[in-house]
Amino acid sequence: MAKTIPSQQTVCAVTVAYNDPDELNRLLESISAQTRPVDCVIVVDNSDESLLSDRNSVVTDSALCEISNFEFVKSPVNRGSAGGFKMGMALAYARNYDWIWLLDQDGIAAKDCLKKLLESSGKAGILCPKVLSIGDESAELYFRGRLNFLGGSFPVFSCPGKELSITLFATHGVMISRAAISETGYYDDRNFFCGWEDHDYSQRLKKNGIKMLLVSDAVVYHPDLIAKYKKTKAGRFHWTSLLYMFVNSHLPLPAFLGVVTKTDMSTELGVIRKKTLVALTKKHIRGFKFWAAFIFSFFCLVVMKVSGKPVLFVDSLKMYADMTRD
Fold this sequence. Notes:
Layout: E1 11-17, H1 21-32, E2 40-45, H2 50-63, E3 70-74, H3 80-94, E4 99-103, E5 108-109, H4 113-118, E6 126-133, E7 144-147, E8 153-155, E9 163-166, E10 168-169, E11 175-177, H5 178-184, H6 197-207, E12 212-222, H7 225-229, H8 238-250, H9 262-265, H10 268-284, H11 287-306, H12 313-324
Parallel strand pairs: 1-2, 1-4, 2-3, 6-12
Antiparallel strand pairs: 4-11, 5-12, 6-11, 7-8, 7-10, 9-12
Helix pairs in contact: 1-2, 10-12, 11-12
């Protein structure tokens, strides 16, 4: 039976700042404006340049001046989103906060989001708000869902009632109880850098029997990531991301393990993405799930190769081989 967590109330918001003081300012202002104030805010700075870190520090002081307890922490190196959130989660946990509220720098929260989440605080160990597009409030994003028996996932959109059980979430807006962290730990920054650490954490929570709830009347806003990155150099493998999103959103198919393209391997982000897929599969997609996912991915790989897409066939097969090694 899924475990529930006793109702507790103290909340520490955590975000990771990276190279964009304007986005950070927008987020922190939305945190400061909550109708139910947070008890603490921790900003972990991952910025590449000291000038940007200095600006982020000034932004933090200004935007959170109405909050009595906040901290700006500069990471000595860029630890990625996984490492940054892990650092913030560990600091908040050590200070005995009952709930740790994770928020992405490029998003914001509705003014009553925290109040609405806390209304469900006695019912689950993980509370997730609904995520709307920051550019189109009528569009709900694929940020919450349920894992299926083949390792894929189905999105969960606005439910008819206030709450709905889920088993998969993306970071922005998730509120994690102290009890859930006691059993599950923090984000895994050893195997993940930027991306999929929340997917991994969801699966670990599920294995530990921690109940996760979507609270549909609590709202946060976030950019549509496909639209945000599709025109950038790092996002030119965007058509594979679209295929993945379609598979996991509309079809009862296994997880798409992905393929390696020339564009992937020409960028640092692409190399990280490959390592992430290997790590995620080793940890969670075993046995029948792996072979179902492999067959589907191999089919996609062949179709892409035949159609002239810049797929590295041998490198993709090597990636699958790496996934089977302990």
